[in-house]
Amino acid sequence: MRRLKAGIVGCGGIANAKHLPAMAKSGLYEITAFCDVIEERAKEAKDRFGSEDARVFLDYRELVQEDLDVVYVTTPNRSHADISIAAMEAGKDVMCEKPMARTYEEAQRMLEAAGRTKRVLNIAYQNRYRRDAAYLKELCRSGEMGEIYFAKAHALRRRAVPTWGVFLNEEEQGGGPLIDIGTHALDLTLWMMDNYEVASVTGAAFHKLSCQTDQGNAFGDWDPELFKVEDSAFGFIRMKNGAVIELEASWALNTLEVDEAKTSICGTKAGADMKDGLRINRIHHNVPTVEKPELFGGAVDFFSGDEKSAADVEQELFYRIVADGAKQTVEPEQAAVVTRILEAVYRSAESGETVYFD
Ligand SMILES: NC(=O)c1ccc[n+]([C@@H]2O[C@H](COP(=O)([O-])OP(=O)(O)OC[C@H]3O[C@@H](n4cnc5c(N)ncnc54)[C@H](O)[C@@H]3O)[C@@H](O)[C@H]2O)c1
Predict the structure, then answer these.
(1) Which CATH number is correct for 130-307+337-356, 3.40.50.620, 3.30.360.10, 3.30.70.20, 3.40.640.10?
(2) pLDDT (tens digit, 9 = 90+) per residue, 222-251?
């Protein structure tokens, strides 16, 4: 089996925590090019994960000209579009971190480039590969949930503001918790509903806790001077078929309902949430029932089987998409709709008006 030659741009948190270890574990990739504007980071990643002849770059425009099959884009959101487009134009297939882009205009440029160059553009919404999400998707796909007409996308943290990197920087990221973690929850929700036809979006964004100094933050104190993005944001999304979605995202909120990368859906035949493992609720033989599928662990207590993490599945699937033409689970057009909705929440929050889609 041929290994794919891979290059990676942005050797920070997610590259080292998710992509590089899973790529190495899979044995499907030979990672030969590492780029970061901070050279030390690229060198460290190369030493840990690179092939013997791997090279280090400071400029992504040089990396994309290398003899590579795939380029991973794991930089802050601001450069997702430019780097992905440059890689596709250089003939490489792309794995780009979420969110696809800061704005719908950037996402559209990425889609145009993918179509023009006929390259794969895969957005790294790895939560779709979780076992609970994949199982629920099967229930939705098979019609067992009925028509889903109400859903909630949950991305609520009580105090877990990311204090590393550029997460608090509006220009670099395009926003705060909404674009950072709201994006996962909304992606899961739209995917379960299989509904990407948006009619309107109403949103509100808050900067209420970012100025506080008594923080209790999971990732250490943030600098109130640097915290320019919202600390929480909420959206109400109306779909063209009448279905509605409530979207809630925060890094800091006075709530005990902490839920991240989760969806709750209500269909005409059944409902589901992920609040205590995956729970399916329905009426069965005239009785309200709750089913909790056993998604983890084997039947024998000393052997739990070879369970794959979402990160492992992501790398294996990307390999099959690129090498064998397998179907993408995350279609870039779907990721672009997520970005369009998030941008509309911000626009609505700013103007106080509902944003209508054509
Ligand atoms: N899928 C997930 O669950 C998940 C989780 C965390 C982060 N992310 C995404 O990953 C991306 C990066 O986040 P992170 O936490 O790794 O941030 P990070 O700051 O830890 O790492 C980003 C790296 O990119 C480098 N960089 C910035 N601009 C560059 C450029 N133009 N060329 C080359 N290198 C450049 C930085 O020096 C840094 O080392 C973001 O888009 C974020 O939304 C996704």
Answers:
(1) 3.30.360.10
(2) 999 999 999 999 999 999 999 999 999 999
